[in-house]
Design a protein that fits this description.
Oligomer: heterodimer
Structural class of chain A: mainly alpha
Largest sheet of chain B: 6 strands, mixed
CATH topology of chain B: Rossmann fold
Mean pLDDT of chain B: 91
Shape of chain B: globular
Low-confidence stretches of chain A: none
Bound molecules: adenosine-5'-diphosphate, magnesium ion
Structural class of chain B: alpha/beta
CATH superfamily of chain B: P-loop containing nucleotide triphosphate hydrolases
Number of strands of chain B: 10
Radius of gyration of chain A: 20 Å
Number of helices of chain B: 8
Number of helices of chain A: 14
CATH architecture of chain A: Orthogonal Bundle
Order of helices and strands of chain B: EEEHEEHEHHHEHEHEEH
Number of domains of chain A: 1
Strand order of the largest sheet of chain B: 6-7-8-3-9-10
Largest sheet of chain A: 2 strands, antiparallel
Chain lengths: ~325, ~250
């Protein structure tokens, strides 16, 4: 390998956002050649609406992964939150207030999960696995298992009316979260809490506080994604979101360059990772490739990313790039 | 000298972790500008003692006094507000963060009136602080995990020194250092001593070095203090004799 090639490789590895963006661009080119309708307005709309939910959720999930935790139940919060809004609005509360209240409930769920995880020392994998079933049961109970129509008025138009509403929210939330991660104490201390919990505590960082905060954040973003989705599809489905959207959000985070080991990650990488999964899924649909193949590809992509993350981290340390 | 003039005093500190009694009642005192060296085997409880003085652990029993006033530290930050800063044995560095972020961990500098990190200022001050003590670090932006053990240790020390602490606790600050780096840190410690306003406690394993640099020394074995005295009035031989005697005591018990 010559020096220039090594320099490029080093750049791509050092900036995970760069390597996943490269993958995205290659996919765009491939699908553009393979299908004439790929680069048309309607299809781009479809793609963006497609991956917006898991792009949003990835923003919260990345913060949790960085501080060494994970939330498996966020997909169930995604389904529950719009129902809470629906029932509160049905009781005569203005829709906007109902929405705020529903988001508060989503945040409260995050608080409970975070509190149990941090104060009882239960791994979040377990607490949120439990919460996943519990919240799903709650949604099915209050909805009776049937979908309802999303209450509609001006608010619905603001949050879901425009074809690009959801993706605009996703990008907006990503920019805010990126700023929080890179340019505030909260972000820095989130990295410290996951990178070296003992050391961070010795430096006086309140790790429990940071972790609980990120659980609240992730859950609230999950609720917001659920509400946006409800406005967009104009119905509220008890089976919306679920494990699928949670899994895609975590997959986006990981292939975007966030470590499952904690201590490092990038919001922008996660956003691009989410787009790549969306493009992949859409492109396959256009080409008439079986949906199951998508799962095989996603699964393989995650495995390859995980292996290369570990390998490259060691390689980086050896060659000090 | 009256009690009130001690910068830091610990009285009969004990610490129990579940079944393990790490400290059996240790007392120490430190005048302003004075340096205490702590020697002792691994597992003797030295680090535990430091973590109690730094507010990381609460003692099981016993009391702490700063400038003669009784205090109960509720957190590391609380102890820090009394001017106490600790370089922990594990260094408390985050490998995935840059050098300058580590230098300002939990003491981040923000833009005035805004909740945003002032990266430029932190980078500048970190570079200054490291240059000040003569440490070579390739870049302020490099992740700490990429650096050598000695460099990492130097960063942890520079961080504590740059905080303008009045009481500096150093837990085996020379452990991962080569000869050149170690002599740099010793020189730094001597400069701080010469300034006369910083009190220090240093845990170390090198008896001769410790006697050389510290005003007084303390031997900690199995959670108790087995010797305490002025450096000038004791010797490596005497200290080793006490250690050996204690060791024989253990083997006889068995
Ligand atoms: N957080 C802790 N929980 C339980 N036991 C601990 C903890 N910290 C230290 N100990 C125990 O206390 C004893 C003293 O440890 P330490 O203070 O680290 O010794 P030293 O620094 O002198 O080598 C050891 O037996 C150690 O296992
Ligand atoms: Mg120790």
């Amino acid at each position: 390998m010559n020096k220039r090639q090594k320099g490029l490789l080093a750049f791509l590895l050092r900036k995970p956002e760069a390597s996943i963006s490269l993958v995205g661009i290659i996919l765009l080119i491939v699908f553009q050649f393979a299908s004439p309708v790929f680069f048309t307005g309607p299809n781009l709309q479809t793609v963006s609406q497609f991956f917006a939910p898991w792009a949003l959720i990835a923003c919260g999930e990345i913060m949790l992964l960085i501080c060494g935790e994970v939330d498996l139940s966020v997909g169930q919060v995604f389904a529950l939150t719009p129902f809470i809004m629906y029932f509160v609005a049905g009781a005569g509360v203005p829709l906007f207030l109902a929405m705020i209240l529903a988001l508060l409930v989503a945040g409260l769920l995050g608080l409970c999960i975070g509190f149990i995880t941090v104060h009882f020392g239960v791994p979040s994998f377990i607490t949120t696995l439990g919460a996943m079933l519990l919240i799903n049961g709650l949604t099915l109970t209050i909805s009776g298992g049937f979908p309802v129509d999303t209450p509609n008025n001006l608010l619905g138009n603001i949050f879901g009316g425009w074809a690009y509403s959801e993706i605009a929210w996703a990008v907006g939330v990503a920019v805010v979260m990126h700023t929080i991660l890179r340019h505030t104490r909260w972000g820095l201390q989130t990295i410290a809490a996951g990178g070296n919990p003992t050391g961070a505590a010795e430096a006086g960082i309140r790790i429990k506080h940071i972790k609980i905060g990120n659980f609240i954040l992730c859950s609230t973003i999950g609720g917001l994604a659920g509400i946006l989705n409800a406005f967009h599809v104009t119905s509220i489905d008890p089976n919306a979101g679920g494990a699928n959207v949670m899994f895609l959000a975590i997959a986006s985070s990981v292939i975007g360059g966030t470590s499952l080991m904690g201590g490092s990650g990038t919001i922008l990488g996660g956003l691009v990772g989410a787009a790549v999964l969306g493009i992949l899924q859409d492109g396959f649909t256009l080409l008439g490739i079986n949906a199951y193949t998508f799962d095989i590809i996603t699964g393989a992509a995650i495995l390859i990313t995980m292996i290369s993350n570990v390998q490259f981290a060691a390689w980086r340390r050896r060659s000090r790039i | 000298m009256s009690e009130a003039t001690y910068a830091l005093e610990a009285r009969d500190i004990t610490k129990r972790f579940g079944q393990v009694q790490a400290l059996h009642g240790i007392s120490l005192n430190l005048k302003p500008g004075e340096m205490l060296g702590i020697l002792g085997d691994n597992g003797a409880g030295k680090s535990t003692l430091m973590k109690i003085l730094s507010g990381f652990h609460a003692p099981t029993t016993g009391e702490l006094l700063v400038k003669g006033k009784k205090v109960e530290f509720t957190s590391v930050d609380h102890a820090r507000s009394f001017g106490i800063e600790c370089v922990y044995q594990d260094l408390a560095l985050v490998n995935t963060l840059s050098v300058y972020h580590n230098m300002f961990l939990n003491r981040e500098i923000l833009y005035q009136g805004l909740p945003f990190l002032n990266h430029r200022k932190m980078r500048e001050l970190a570079a200054e602080a490291l240059a000040d003590i003569g440490v070579n670090v390739p870049s302020m932006d490099i992740e700490v995990g990429m650096l050598s053990g000695g460099q990492r240790q130097a960063i942890a020390i520079a961080r504590a020194v740059a905080s303008h602490a009045r009481i500096l606790l150093l837990d085996e600050p020379l452990a991962a250092m080569g000869a050149r780096e170690a002599s740099m840190i010793i020189a730094l410690i001597e400069r701080l001593k010469a300034r006369g306003d910083v009190s220090m406690i240093m845990i170390a394993h090198n008896y001769a070095q410790t006697l050389d640099v510290a005003d007084k020394v303390m031997l900690v074995q199995r959670g108790t203090c087995t010797f305490e005295g002025r450096s000038a009035e004791t010797s490596v031989t005497e200290l080793l004799e006490i250690v050996k005697r204690e060791y024989r005591g253990i083997t006889h018990e068995v």
